[in-house]
Amino acid sequence: MLLQARRMSLVALEAVKGTTMIDDVCVPRSRLGELIEGVERISGKHGLTIGVVAHAGDGNTHPTVCFDASDPDESRRARESFDEIMALGLELGGTITGEHGVGVLKKEWLAREAGPVSMEMQRAVKHAFDPLNILNPGKLF
Q: What Pfam families has UniProt attached to this entry (predicted)?
């Protein structure tokens, strides 16, 4: 029943406004409460519903911003709230991703978290294994 409820949570959140922007932010378990409280503040600040589903045992959370993609102002506020949640995760000693990878939305956040030396190393590894840039071109590098 718990697994079924978890699976239905995204469906329920999509019904709020029709579009969702899902985060994948991990923080130390001891800071989960601070993250949830921070997401609640961000939600109120931007006037958006942001649901949070989590793998609480490992600190992995999925804040989900609900918004109307046809409303430019709401879309802007959704992106701003997404960025604020990423920043909060880092401030709490966490990471911008815990299981799903960086993807397109978090591209700039990886650089902020990892730093220039790590990013250069990752570029070098990518080039070593994919010198023709045919594997997922333009996604990260």
A: FAD-oxidase_C
The maximal CA–CA distance of the chain, rounded, in angstroms, is: 48
Instruction: Tell me the three-class secondary structure of the chain, residue by residue.
Output: CHHHHHHHHHHHHHHHHCEEEECCEECCHHHHHHHHHHHHHHHHHHCCEEEEEEEHHHCEEEEEEEECCCCHHHHHHHHHHHHHHHHHHHHCCCECCCCCCCCCCCHHHHHHHHCHHHHHHHHHHHHHHCCCCCCCCCCCC
CA distance 7 to 71: 27
Task: Identify residue 15 by its one-letter amino acid code.
Answer: A
Instruction: Read off the pLDDT of residues 45-93 as tens digits, 9 standing for 90 and up.
Output: 999 999 999 887 888 999 999 999 999 999 999 999 999 999 999 999 9
Alpha-carbon 30 to chain mean position: 19
Q: What is the pTM of this model?
A: 0.87
